[in-house]
Each structure stands twice: as C-alpha cells, then as structure tokens.
What does this fold into?
Amino acid sequence: MLQHQFPSVQSNAAAYLQHLCFGDNKIKAEIRRQGGIQLLVDLLDHRMTEVHRSACGALRNLVYGKANDDNKIALKNCGGIPALVRLLRKTTDLEIRELVTGVLWNLSSCDALKMPIIQDTLAVLTNAVIIPHSGWENSPLQDDRKIQLHSSQVLRNATGCLRNVSSAGEEARRRMRECEGLTDALLYVIQSALGSSEIDSKTVENCVCILRNLSYRLAAETSQGQHMGTDELDGLLCGEASGKDAESSGCWGKKKKKKKSQDQWDGVGPLPDCAEPPKGIQMLWHPSIVKPYLTLLSECSNADTLEGAAGALQNLAAGSWKWSVYIRAAVRKEKGLPILVELLRIDNDRVVCAVATALRNMALDVRNKELIGTFSPVHSVSVFM
It folds into this structure.
C-alpha cells in the first residue's frame, strides 16, 4: 500500500505503520525485514506534503532507541540521510521540519552513523535550522519571539543531533568548529536564555554540551594552538609563577629573569594580539565565553547543563596554551572560583567530578590556587589530592 497510486492510501499506510511500531521493537525489525524502510524513504521525495508527514513519522518511530541500530543503518543504506536533507531544504511545513530533525536526532545515537550525518547534514542543520531559529545574525525579531524560537522543537531536535555527533572524535570536532556560524549561533542561544525560564531547557543543555565537546583539545587540534612557540610558552608560564619563584629560578630552573611577555594577561584590560570581537571558532576559547558559562553554573538547575558548563571550563583551562592561561585569569576576574567551589556541595557525582577537575585546572594559576583554598579549605582538599 506504500506503493499505491493514490497519495491518500500511501499516507494512511505510512501512518498505520507509525502507529503499529510505536514502542514495539519486534514489529520495527519485521518492517525492516519486509523492505518497509526503503519504501518509506522513497516517499520522502513524494510530491504531496501529507505523504511526507506520514513517512517521516513512521521513520522516526522505526529508528528510535539503541535497540534499533539495525534499522538506523538500514535507513542510511537506503539513501535515507540525503533524502531527509533534501526534504528539510525544500519544505516550509514546520511539523515536517520537526519530524525530519527528529529522525536525524534518533539516527545520531548510532556511532556508525555519526560521521555520515556530519558529512551530509551539518551545513543544512546549521544554515536552515540552527542559525535562523537561534535569532542570531542581526535577527529583526522581538526578544519574546526569539525566546519562542529557542524553545521550538525543531531547534531542540537539531541541537540534539549535533550534540550526539560532536562526540565522534577529532575529525567531527574539526568539521563542526569550522562550520561557519555554528559556534556563534549556539552561544547566542545560551546568552539569550540567561535570566529566563529557558535556562533549564533541553535546547540550552544541548548547546552547552556541543560547545563543551568542541572545546576539548583545542590547543592540540587547532592551528592557533599548534603555532605557539617555546619562547611564548615560557613567558606565559612565568606570568603564572609566584613573584619569588620567578625571580629566583625562572620557569624551568635557573634562567635569567625574562621581561614581561607582551602576551601575558591577568584578566584586566584588552587581550594581547586578539581581534575584537571574536567570531566563529575564536569564540570557543576567547575569555568572553567565561561569563555565560559562570552564569549557567550559578543560575541553572539542570544537572546536565551544569556538568556541560563545568566541563567546558575544565577543557578550556587545561594545559599551558596561552588561551588556557587567559581563561584561568578570566574566571578569577569574573569571580567564578567561589561559584565552582560551591558546586562541590551539589548532590550529583557527575557535576561534582566535572567541577573538581575544572578547579584543578584553574589551580594551575598560582593566584587561583591560593583563592580556592581560602573559599573552602575542606572541599579544596579533594580537588588537589
């Protein structure tokens, strides 16, 4: 009946399959074995909107859940991902856009499909969903309308999909970092939600977790991190050493006292050699990103968002890259250390672990280490042990 000559019959058949397979993994597997996934994928290029709606609804149910990875791979092998992208590009129907992005979100939980999803969908999800629904890029919309867009199901689905695929490894992170407008729009969603009920939403959680993943190993995986020379590193580390140690032994043993590096920054004044305002990938490591993360940590009640924000700061403050030095100084300047210390008391092991590791990285800065101890000597013992 999915191949019937009348669109109404095709639509009803797809809708029946959607109902039939809901919550029933055995029926989902049987539909796959009978070739139903290929027939439903073929309907994505149908001329009728109602057929699109029913086919997408059936596919969304068929690929829901980790137990149905075989269905997800079957959909991919049927050319389903490019077909979904074609439909997302051409349709203006909001319900269909929600269904398409819902299918993609379900598919993205399958490890084998994460890179194919990035290759086929990253550009369209960014340009057709995330940027316009974020309100970023000089949107003329009123603030209340922007919040409504932020809470839309299609944005929630798209960010959920990209959150899953952002964990697929170095190449996935590289592609997403280099995707024009993605970082800007994700950060805009977060900033727009601060101070509103949206701060605890799934969409904000997804955005924070994407940025957390993209902040991982920035110094090692970006050209900006790889171009840092030994002299620059020595100067920056000297800037973090205590005055007595710096005068007596330099950074790496007995050396002549260096002049203050022009790249040192203590959280006050303009950043050395930094274009203002930051754009694109630069926003991932620029110290201005510290403030929204700290606001989330102090105001949000969503544990997954708290873990993501703490994890992002943990990643950014790791190591001796100059931007890690700047991030540690910025957290101190924005009075973020007591916020992090207070979160050690929260009754959530994953949040506490992320916060404790972030504090360890912050303590690479000597002034931060001293301050952390004064805020909570008892809790700080666990951080530095």
The domain at 221-384 is CATH 1.25.10.10 (Leucine-rich Repeat Variant).
